[in-house]
Amino acid sequence: MGVDIETSMKVTNSSTTLVSKSGQPVVTAFQRTLWVLNTLYYVILGIVSLIFLWIFCDLSAINDTQYTLHLILSTAAYVPLMAVAIFVFAEDNVAALYIPRTKRYSIHGILLLISCVAASIGMAVMVVRKSENNRSHFTSKHGKYGLASWVLLFASVLTGIFAANTRFFSKVFRPVILKLFHNLLGLAGFAMGIAATYVMVNHLRNSLSSSALTGMKVGLIYVTIWSAVYALKSLYGQIKGVFS
């Protein structure tokens, strides 16, 4: 017997969940597809993160502690920490499907803060290392992208604190504007951080086969796009809210 579906879309745990007149959720083929793609996202994110960690630990035998620490912390700040911090708000996030949105804000804030601390320490140890060897700072593409990302990430954390405490700042800034800048700065910082990571991947040729290197790049691109797609949707709504 077919299920009579209401014409309107109701939100349960996911915005793509239809609800029958009896109140029972109906899982659509579209939603199942999103769940599969989101599960694939976590699988690829885990594989990419573990491969990075394995390579960095393997290279620690020939690299000094400062350089190894820079590699691990600066990479982990974006993959997986910031990627998950952004993706936690995805409506069909299988890992957070039954987590209330209020708790997702807390998870987002904690992950973003840890990401910022990791990026800061990772950059700091590299600056100290280069200073000790009388080398210039932030001259390569990797260094410039990394510095830009850290500035944007730090600014995103600050605006996030303001956005989370709108009751104190609502007289100065509209809440939607704070959320817009937090989202925009966070996405820009994430993009620059991934760009720096992507440049760094090209230096791992001696640690990976040609096919594995290509796989890492494809995986990194997939994680980046899938992490940002829901945030971009939210950004569009915030921009509309600013002018409404």
Task: Explain how this protein is built.
By secondary structure, the chain is mainly alpha-helical. It has one domain: Four Helix Bundle (Hemerythrin (Met), subunit A). Helices cover 71% and strands 2% of the residues. Helix 4 runs antiparallel to helix 6 and helix 6 packs antiparallel against helix 7. The radius of gyration is 20 Å and the shape is globular.
Q: Assembly type of the shown chains?
A: single chain
CATH topology name: Four Helix Bundle (Hemerythrin (Met), subunit A)
Gross geometry:
globular
Tell me the distance between the termini: 44 Å
In total, the number of domains comes to 1
Features:
single chain, 244 residues, mainly alpha, Four Helix Bundle (Hemerythrin (Met), subunit A), two-stranded antiparallel sheet, 7 helices, 2 strands, 71% helix, globular, disordered N terminus
Compose a concise summary of this entry.
This protein has 7 helices and 2 strands.
SSE topology sketch:
Elements: E1 18-19, E2 25-26, H1 29-59, H2 65-87, H3 101-132, H4 141-164, H5 166-169, H6 175-201, H7 210-242
Helix pairs in contact: 1-2, 1-7, 2-3, 2-6, 2-7, 3-4, 4-6, 6-7
